[in-house]
Amino acid sequence: MKPAEKQQVxxxxxxxxxxxxxxxxxxxxxxNESPARISEVTLALRDSKPFLQTLRNQLEAVGRVAxxxxxxxxxxxxxxxxxxxxxxxxxxxxxxxxxxxxxxxELDELLLWTGWPLLGTLHDPIAALKE
Length: 131
Hints:
Blueprint: H1 3-20, H2 23-30, H3 38-45, H4 49-68, H5 74-82, H6 86-95, H7 97-111, H8 116-123, H9 125-130
């Protein structure tokens, strides 16, 4: 993994940790300074039930949409989720960051198509004239 990707993974893990556990638990796990290495975060969060549940929920949501749209990589993501080992899911998400990133880019391209605003103006010609 490139240094920029490592930094992104670290930031996303910390963001998800803050979202899933309260500030007191976060401070207990990491102290007053945020960790600088991915391994520090994953080791600390492998036993955090709220974090693992949030991670599983987020990955399941992405997996359902990617599977419905038949995106490449959706089957790998569903394999990860088929395993009952939640601490292993943290490792798979970190190691498979490239796969997750690719799925999210494909979802973004499909769902946030730049042509959507144009379709809206076809139904409201007055709004189109104002622009």
